[in-house]
Design a protein that fits this description.
Distance between the termini: 22 Å
Largest sheet: 11 strands, mixed
Structural class: alpha+beta
Helix content: 25-40%
């Protein structure tokens, strides 16, 4: 199945929904849609976090599963919500939080988004030093856009989630 793509950026590889409770949300998604297994990561450690250009924190937990050709992420923010920090109207939860896109060059893609008027609302690095950013694309898409370059660690995680989904459906 062909993946969606955003011109001049890259393929959409994930859709994320903001939720208040990961356990309830994963149970609902599994029961209603048969999407499983979910891989839950609680209080994901991040370094060099900036929110709206200011050094900050971003404490969140996420659950990941495969949904057709896309990874689905259920994201629960434990710090002040990015949606609330962006000085726009308050969103209801659950709602689409972001789409994630694999980009060829992180710096160029981030600069391009900024030049198009899509402010970088979050920049952070994983504990292994892998950078990612979320840009506020709500005026066009109604949600944030997360960008990162695919690396071996990340693509292995995506592959594991997808393969686990196939294995679970064969039972």
């Amino acid at each position: 199945m062909k993946k969606w793509s955003i011109p001049n950026l890259g393929p959409i590889v994930q859709v994320a929904y903001a939720v208040d409770n990961l356990e309830d949300a994963t149970s609902s998604w599994s029961e209603l849609f048969g999407i499983e297994p979910f891989f839950i990561k609680k209080h994901i450690p991040l370094n060099n976090v900036r929110v709206n250009g200011v050094n900050s924190t971003f404490d969140h937990s996420s659950a990941y599963a495969q949904w057709g050709s896309l990874m689905v992420e259920l994201i629960c923010e434990h710090t002040e919500k990015l949606l609330h920090r962006s000085n726009q109207k308050e969103e209801t939860i659950p709602s689409v939080h972001h789409y994630a896109v694999f980009v060829n060059n992180f710096e160029k893609a981030s600069t391009k988004l900024k030049n198009l008027g899509f402010k970088e609302i979050l920049y952070a690095e994983t504990s292994s030093g892998f950078p990612f950013a979320m840009h506020d694309t709500r005026k066009i898409f109604g949600h944030f856009l997360e960008i990162y370059e695919p690396n071996e660690e990340l693509t292995n995680f995506y592959r594991m989630v997808e393969e686990s989904s196939r294995n679970g459906n064969e039972k």
